[in-house]
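User: Please predict the structure of the protein below. I'd like the answer in structure-token form so I can feed it into my own downstream comparison script.

Assistant: Understood. Taking the following sequence of 652 residues as input:
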Amino acid sequence: MSHEHQRRLELIVENTTNMVIVTNGERKIEWVNPAYTKATGWTLEEIKGKNPRSFLHGPRTSLAEASRIGSRLRKGLPVRDAEMLNYRKSGEPYWVSLSIDPILDEGGQVVEYVAIQSDITERKHREIEAARMLRTLREAQRIAKLGNMEHDLASGSVQCSEEIYRILDATGEDIDTSYESLMAYTHPDDRSLVRLNYEQAVKAGGPYESQHRVITRAGRVKWVHLHGMLERASEGDSAVCRLAVQDITERKQAEQLVREKELLDRAAKTQMETLSRISHELRTPLHALLGFADLVERAEGNSLLPSSKRGLGHIRASAQHLLLLVNDMLDLARLHDGRIPLDLQLVPLRDVVEEVLAMLEPVAARRGIALAMENRSELLLAYADRRRLIQVLINLVGNAIKYNRANGRVSVRCMALSADSVAIAVTDTGIGIAAQHLERLFEPFYRVLGPQPEDSQLDQDSTGLGLAIAKSLLHAMGGAIHAESEFGVGSTFFVTLARAEGGSSQLRQAPLGPAPSEVESGVGGTLLYIEDSAVNRVLVEAYLEARPNVTLVCSEDGRSGLAAARRLHPALILIDMRLPDMSGHEVLRAILDDPELCRIPCIAFSADTGVEDVESAIRSGFREFLPKPSSATEFLLAIDRILAVEPMASRV
């Protein structure tokens, strides 16, 4: 090689943008070009005699790749297009692509190495970012259970992403790359329609969409959503259908749960509507039955034969039992549906127990049962709905009386279980309950069959719902109930509730008014009764015989009732809530919207007696709510309360 040619080569090496390193056979640097110094920051004087690894490698340099390169060089083999992460003098990392050639002497020994490096940092950053985005995409597909595949229509081959295999519980080895292989995973009941729709979409060249079932390799049934589009690079090219495939099994299951819930909600609503209608239809004749029985007893009680009195008592008892059954069924349905509103407040347990015992004392006395409250001095408060707690205790104490021995005893004890809970224990000296019955006591309609006290009337007096309702009510109040019993000795029922400390009990008992007199001469005026039931109209007319100064006018539907109200301006309007043409609420709204009628007090008189029905009526503007059935006493009390305070100018 001429000196001039060598000089030209040196100029090329010195001016190239690639980095050039020359080392001796021991791989110690002898020379670097200016591009190397510019790229790394190291000058020849600083690194001459050093192995490049000693200052170029850093914490993120691949030791495996460095070892591979070193192994080839020790064998005198060249290195081609290796990629390494090196570090500049400043500590900044950079990527290089390098090729290294050994220079041999005449004896075949390596005397020098020439390395040429190019900076590929930007390219590597793009590749790393692309790989990161691909990982993110795959992770997103995994999380979203979304895969993709391409179907070459000419060859029939299909390329699938990893998520497709995951959806099918398979691997690439389990599925060949054919369209038919994938179609085999489609649920047999869906396969024909899926194939037909897909082939029609391909033929039309339009989009394709499908939701269908697949059976995975593991035998699981899954739902998938496919969305695809046919693509051609140019006219005449083979068409490719690109499809996105998503596992929508969880969504389908959620939709199924929503549908089932909607069905259950509709069924519960239908059940409540049916029970409400049944309740209304039963309460209407019961109202008449109990009302007329009450009137007969009030008018003819002293002159009735003993057998007639007993018959009248049986009529009343049977009607009351049927009414109790209707109420219990409605309560149980509302509790099951979560529709019984509760007014949780601080309740003094002693007061509640004393009230219940006072109410049931006459019943106990008739059977010679002694009622007692233990530890009366114990002042305990619980969080509960007072009215519903009384309902529970009436059931428990009533059962303790009913299932007791003649001349037995019922005791009620309030106790603190802990800083957070209190209990009420109702103990009787009755016949007891066999162990096999205890677990099922609180099931609806479950009744213990076996020996009973001779003087009991358990079959006709019990609905089989009381304990089930008690359990549901206590659960809704955050409490619980359980029973302990020794057959032949007696039983104890334990009610547990959340304990409260101090504070006002916020009792909201309605004040008790004086009992109405047989004839209240101070009460008078026109009473308009809007009612479609002829029996109920006759009954109210009979009730009002005790109020000779009250004039009764009846209308059979809402429209005629409103016309009568505008004509008469009565002192009081009594409105049935289910009229043939209007609801009681609609009649009231028309009255309140009329400036001439809006001051007339109105009473809702209804067989729909749920808490929500009563509260809705009062919120709407009714002065009072009278349930059907109501006794003559209850009816007259309500009438007297209003007519006794209304100004005489409003009466006719």
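That's the full token string. Residues 452-460, 503-515, 647-652 have pLDDT under 50 and may be disordered.
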